[in-house]
Design a protein that fits this description.
With 169 residues, the protein is of the alpha+beta class. It is built from six helices and four strands; from the N terminus they run H-E-E-E-H-H-E-H-H-H. The longest helix has 26 residues, at 143-168. It is globular.
């Protein structure tokens, strides 16, 4: 399985009754939805396609625009658009009372990623944490970007480390 399958699988879990649950906001909370049996495959495929498009676009916007454009304009627009789209997609789905835990999410994602990919992500996360420290020490006026880099990629490294541990168990 590939990178985007791993990301996509982190938004899904199977409950005790064997039903597939979808969590549009992942581990950040919010409602989970029970997928109808006849929609499981196409719904998962749709979410994967969304990830394949939205993540590169988000990365490009982050690279080519200043941080304040991303935070104050692009991010709110992205989140509102996603929320409206998800509401339309899930309007006929039953809401689940179960929550998605970080452990469940990382287990599902680890199953779909290969170990080499996880190690590459772990190393890159560490390098971006170091880059954030470098930014803070060499250009104190850019402390905000350095801090964001440390926090975001530190979290990425932590989660990826959990996935590597799950993969090795």
């Amino acid at each position: 399985m590939g990178y985007f399958e791993g990301i996509t699988d982190s938004y899904f879990k199977t409950d005790k009754e064997g039903k597939t649950l979808f969590y549009p906001w992942g581990i950040l909370g919010g409602k989970g939805y029970i997928l109808p049996d006849n929609r499981k495959a196409d719904f998962r495929s749709l979410i994967k396609k969304y990830m394949q498009i939205s993540l590169p676009v988000a990365l490009a916007i982050t690279i080519f625009f200043k941080w304040w454009v991303v935070i104050f304009f692009a991010l709110p627009l992205y989140l509102c658009t996603y929320a409206i789209w998800i509401r339309k997609l899930t309007k006929d789905f039953t809401v689940s009372a179960e929550k998605l835990t970080l452990d469940e999410s990382t287990t599902n994602a680890a199953r779909s990623h290969n170990l080499t990919t996880l190690w590459i992500i772990e190393i890159l996360s560490l390098l971006f944490v170091i880059a954030g420290m470098f930014i803070i020490t060499t250009s104190p006026k850019d402390w905000f970007m350095g801090t964001l880099s440390i926090l975001f990629f530190g979290l990425c490294g932590y989660v990826t480390g959990k996935m590597i541990k799950k993969k090795n168990d």
